[in-house]
Amino acid sequence: MRKLIINANVVLENGILWNGSLLINGDTITEIRNEAEASFEEDAEIIDAQGAYVGPGFVDIHVHGAQGGTTYFDTEKTAEFFLKHGTTTLLATPPYNLDFETFLDAIRQARAAMKRTKTVKGLYLEGPYINVKYGAFSHLNPWRGNIDPDRFRMLVDAAGEDACVWTIAPEREGIVPFLEYARKVNPSAIFAVGHSEATPREIRALGKYRPTLQTHSMCATGRLETPAGTRGYGPDEYCFKEQDIFCELISDSGGIHVHTDLQRMLVNIKGINKIVLISDSSWDESHSAPKGMEHIRDLAFDDIGQLAGSKLTMDQACRNIMSHTNCGIAQAFVMASTNPAKVLGWDNEIGSIEQGKKADLVFVDHMFNVKNVMLGGELCRF
């Protein structure tokens, strides 16, 4: 049965179609109409958006878990939670602080659960081959020492074609053989630079394996020390400079992961079309906030008070980025839906509202409060 969404402010990639309508056939958007073209279809179910903004479902490529569960061991539970907040596509994200056997198990369990969910589309492997100096629980990082080819082959083989992103530190000795094997097993996998203090020269030296994405820009990065009090340079500066690289951004309500002035700077340098909003959600409730941060409700911390992801959902991340940078609703959707789909090469199917694309939609008000979610042409019933 066809569906006709009416009275919608349709959020397109290049702006907003006020008081528009969308015709859905099965799981596909078949027509986008303005007010003058609006007409009722005798065989269509009418869905009244009641003036809500209707945009593409959020694509959260970097998300660890929520409410005590993880996207890799509790995949179905956490996917349902994030779907309620408008995330219609996500990548299960095992973190670098898992030991070898647990990391391997996380990959296998997440892949098995993907067959039972509609929103989990792959894996974002945050590590394990990062710089152990950086990130939450860095003092407990089990991946020190040499990169073992036998172990990385087991990890890569276990992830297979579902390994969409691997976060790596280019300065790790022996990283290139890992990159070669990861790309051999899944030619469409991309690499992200993160948890790193690599110089631009070290990143460029990776050649065809150079990253096209930065894992949470300006978080868990270092830079080369320089003499005479001058500023050093590292992964952030490299990613700012390279036009083809996308930068992930965690936009929490207090501007703690990335200061609000730096968020505005990132928008000015990279432009809206190269920023990927992520939640980096972990919802770790086991460690309390350090003094002075107790009032910020969307942060998570490790056992020594360092940031350990967030308690964000993508609707809240959109609300925060609008507050911090003065961007508009359409621009927030570009960063939360369109760009993450593009960086994965999935933008021919999802990430924006266009004829022929999948009808994964989220209905929000002007403050990004979620009113309805449509997944594959069907309204979700929660």
Structure overview:
This protein is α/β, with parallel strands linked by helices and 382 residues long. It contains nine helices and 20 strands. The strands form four sheets. Strands 1, 2, 3, 4, 5, 18, 19 and 20 form an eight-stranded mixed β-sheet that branches. Strands 6-9-10-11-12-13-14-15 form an eight-stranded parallel β-sheet. A two-stranded antiparallel ribbon has the order 7-8. A hairpin with a 2-residue loop joins strand 7 and strand 8. Helix 2 packs parallel to helix 3 and helix 8 crosses helix 9. The longest helix has 16 residues.
Unreliable stretches, pLDDT < 50, 5 or more residues? none
Count of individual beta strands: 20
> Biggest sheet, open or closed, and with what strands and sense?
8 strands, mixed
Percent strand equals: 25-35%
Q: Give the SSE order as H and E letters.
A: EEEEEEEEHEHEHEHEHEHEHEEEHHEEE
* Secondary structure: helix percent: 25-40%
Gross morphology is globular
Number of separate helices: 9
- Any idea what the radius of gyration is? 21 Å
Q: Report mean pLDDT, rounded to a whole number.
A: 95
Rounded to the nearest angstrom, the distance between the terminal CA atoms is 21 Å
Structural class: alpha/beta
